[in-house]
Every structure is written in structure tokens, then in C-alpha cells.
Automatic annotation (TrEMBL):
<dbReference type="GO" id="GO:0005509">
    <property type="term" value="F:calcium ion binding"/>
</dbReference>
<dbReference type="GO" id="GO:0042562">
    <property type="term" value="F:hormone binding"/>
</dbReference>
<dbReference type="InterPro" id="IPR036055">
    <property type="entry name" value="LDL_receptor-like_sf"/>
</dbReference>
<dbReference type="InterPro" id="IPR023415">
    <property type="entry name" value="LDLR_class-A_CS"/>
</dbReference>
<feature type="domain" description="EGF-like">
    <location>
        <begin position="152"/>
        <end position="167"/>
    </location>
</feature>
<keyword id="KW-0254">Endocytosis</keyword>
<dbReference type="InterPro" id="IPR049883">
    <property type="entry name" value="NOTCH1_EGF-like"/>
</dbReference>
<dbReference type="Pfam" id="PF07645">
    <property type="entry name" value="EGF_CA"/>
</dbReference>
<dbReference type="GO" id="GO:0006898">
    <property type="term" value="P:receptor-mediated endocytosis"/>
</dbReference>
<dbReference type="GO" id="GO:0016324">
    <property type="term" value="C:apical plasma membrane"/>
</dbReference>
<dbReference type="InterPro" id="IPR018097">
    <property type="entry name" value="EGF_Ca-bd_CS"/>
</dbReference>
<keyword id="KW-0675">Receptor</keyword>
<dbReference type="InterPro" id="IPR051221">
    <property type="entry name" value="LDLR-related"/>
</dbReference>
<feature type="disulfide bond">
    <location>
        <begin position="56"/>
        <end position="71"/>
    </location>
</feature>
<keyword id="KW-1015">Disulfide bond</keyword>
<keyword id="KW-0677">Repeat</keyword>
<dbReference type="Pfam" id="PF00057">
    <property type="entry name" value="Ldl_recept_a"/>
</dbReference>
Length: 240
């Protein structure tokens, strides 16, 4: 079979030889949670990866908490240390450097990593651009990166929620309109309260709403007409 089938996460051989001795890896900016798991039903090899920004952040993101094991502890920096922000010590008593929240440890001035010193001058920290997190966005709409942090914003017609990250639409409470063939109803998304806007219909389907004009449109297949009415249910008219 094709070489591209080897180590692709799917057992193509009857005994799974094509997936044996494969190096299960995650993306460069990710952390692998434990060993890969095999699903006998689908013959797939599953690799659980999380973003490196979640490693040693005090919260268990891996199923078995592997991301919070062997984490360094903050210690007072010694005189003459090469660490620019935070000094840490690892479980094996090796000293290393870390950074404040919003920063990443730099090596050669560009690439961050959690590493002990090993005699190298790994000391500087650089700002993390949280706005570039595509798989785990920090803001629901707009994002502005700042040194060591970030700020979220909203589009016109929205306001920032108290969490400082998500946005809420301005105006009246959101509602859902739906047709039930014999009537058209409105339900509030805040309290799940139903209101019948139009009753006694024949076979109403294909509902639509004109936001600017506040009009409801629907088709009645029994009468072969398209009708409209105001959101309060008044002024219903139809056209064949």
C-alpha cells in the first residue's frame, strides 16, 4: 500500500503493523498529553494535544493532568542570575528561568520554551501575541495585543460583557421565531417564554423576518400564497 498510509493514525494492516513504532507528535506550539491511544473499533490512533500556553498554568487540561506534572516552582533569584523576570527550580533541583503571565521565555531571542539553563544564557522574555491564537481565541470579536497582555473590543452594535472577552448585542432581548404550520410563535431566549403571534393558519412554512422593517414573511402551501405581518401579529396580508 501507499507509504503515506504509514503512521497516519489509521491501522491499514490487519494487525496494525503500519502504525507500529510511530513517533506520535503534536505541533511545535502544542504539548502532548501522555501516550497515544488506540481505538479498536475505528483502528485509529488518537493523540491528545493542548496548547503550550496551558502547560503549568495551575489548571489540569490533559485528561490525566500530565500538563501540570514536573512543573517548576518560583524561587528568589540569586545574585548574578541570568533570568530577566522569574527564577524557578525544577523537581530535579535544576535551576531555570520563567516569565510573567503574558510573556514567553526566549532562546536566542526568538523561540520560547520551558527549559533549565544547562549553562546557557536563556534569560530574556518576549511578549506573547494572544490575538494570534487561532484555535483558542481570547476575544469573541476584536483583539488588541499589548505588552504582556491584551484587550478585547466589539463591533458596532455590540457591547463588551463583564468578562472582558465576549460581546453582547445591543437592543431588545433576542427572540426566536418559528412556524408550526397552524401558527407562528415567538420564544424568548432569555426565559424560554412562548408567545403565539399568529393563529389559525393553514399550512405555514418557510418563515423569514425583515429586521429593518419588523415584518414576518411566510409561505402557506395550502393556499399557495406568500404572506406577511408585523412582529406583533397585526396587518397580515398575502399575495399569490
Amino acid at each position: 500500500f501507499k507509504k503515506t498510509w504509514v503512521c497516519d493514525g489509521v491501522h491499514d494492516c490487519s494487525h496494525g503493523e503500519d502504525e507500529g513504532n510511530c513517533e506520535a507528535t503534536c505541533e511545535e506550539n502544542q504539548f502532548r498529553c501522555g501516550k497515544p491511544s488506540n481505538d479498536s473499533a475505528t483502528s485509529r490512533v488518537t493523540i491528545n494535544c493542548i496548547g503550550r500556553k496551558h502547560v503549568c498554568d495551575g489548571k489540569k487540561d490533559c485528561p490525566k493532568g500530565e500538563d501540570e506534572r514536573n512543573c517548576p516552582k518560583k524561587v528568589p533569584c540569586k545574585h548574578g542570575t541570568v533570568c530577566k523576570q522569574v527564577c524557578v527550580i525544577y523537581p530535579n533541583n535544576t535551576e531555570g528561568c520563567s516569565c510573567y503571565p503574558g510573556y514567553s521565555l526566549s532562546k536566542d531571542g526568538h523561540k520560547w520554551s520551558w527549559q533549565p539553563l544547562f549553562g546557557l544564557s536563556i534569560s530574556s522574555c518576549h511578549d506573547i501575541d494572544e490575538c494570534m491564537f487561532e484555535t483558542d481565541p481570547v476575544c469573541s470579536q476584536t483583539c488588541n495585543n499589548t505588552i504582556g497582555s491584551f484587550t478585547c473590543g466589539c463591533m458596532t452594535g455590540y457591547v463588551l460583557r463583564p468578562d472582558g472577552r465576549s460581546c453582547k448585542a445591543l437592543g431588545a432581548a433576542p427572540t426566536l421565531l418559528f412556524a408550526n404550520r397552524v401558527d407562528i410563535r415567538q420564544v424568548s431566549l432569555n426565559n424560554a417564554k412562548y408567545t403565539a403571534l399568529l393563529k389559525g393558519l393553514h399550512n405555514a412554512i418557510a418563515l423569514d423576518y425583515h429586521y429593518q422593517m419588523g415584518l414576518i414573511y411566510w409561505t402557506d402551501v395550502s393556499m399557495d400564497v406568500i404572506k406577511r405581518a408585523s412582529l406583533n401579529g397585526s396587518g397580515a396580508v398575502g399575495k399569490s
